[in-house]
Amino acid sequence: MNGALPVTQRALLALALVAALVVALAATATAEPATNARPTTAVVPNGTYGVLGARGEYVVFTVRNRRVRDLNFNIQITCQASDSPTSEQRFFSGGAEAPQGRVIPNNGKLILNWRERGNGRLGQVHVELKFGVRDVANFGVIVPEERTPETGPEDALESCDGVSALRFNRGFELTPPPSY
């Protein structure tokens, strides 16, 4: 045995990890506040938010009246082909199918889930935008093996997954590429 997990076990493990993350987030969100603590509302000014990470990952979106619009992102995912013992790093770009105009809750944490095709792969996308002392965008993408009418029973299939956390800033603008 070469030590690599079969693709179905790898996909189940990725789903279990995402489920554990969701349970942990739900447990912290439902924790009782101290009796003397006052409820707080996160301040979220209008504007463009984003960051360009060192690994080529990015997130950019706009906030108007506590509503998030025009979300775009690019994160690294790890892909495993069913006929290969090694995995490879790829990118998943998305946001075109993201829910638009969702209101940021008073606690400053907006959670979005949807399915989208990014870089040719159909993935389940989970995004958590947290506004507060540290503004953070947490991403999770799971791309299961996709059998199409064009793929035969002997064709290799690919499954991918990836998570990322990017600290974003208000007032972010992409700089245009240099002209030569």
Keywords, separated by commas or semicolons:
180 residues, mainly beta, 10-stranded antiparallel β-sheet
Walk me through what this model shows.
The protein is mainly beta and 180 residues long. The radius of gyration is 19 Å and the shape is globular. Helix content is 13%, strand content 43%. It has one helix at residues 7-29, and strands spanning 47-52, 58-64, 67-81, 87-94, 102-103, 109-118, 121-130, 136-143, 158-167, 169-170. Strands 1, 2, 3, 4, 5, 6, 7, 8, 9 and 10 form a ten-stranded antiparallel β-sheet that branches. The longest helix is centred in the first third of the chain and has 23 residues, at 7-29. It has one domain. It contains one helix and ten strands, in the order H-E-E-E-E-E-E-E-E-E-E. It starts with 6 loop residues before the first helix and ends in a 10-residue tail after the last strand.
Give a quick rundown of the structure:
By secondary structure, this protein is mainly beta. It has one helix and ten strands; from the N terminus they run αββββββββββ.
**How far is it from the N-terminal to the C-terminal residue, by CA?**
53 Å
Roughly how much helix do the residues carry, as a percent range?
10-25%
In total, the number of strands is: 10
Instruction: Specify the structural class.
Output: mainly beta
Number of helices, counting only DSSP H or I runs of 4 residues or more: 1
Shape descriptor reads globular
Main sheet overview: 10 strands, antiparallel
The proportion of residues in beta strands is 35-45%
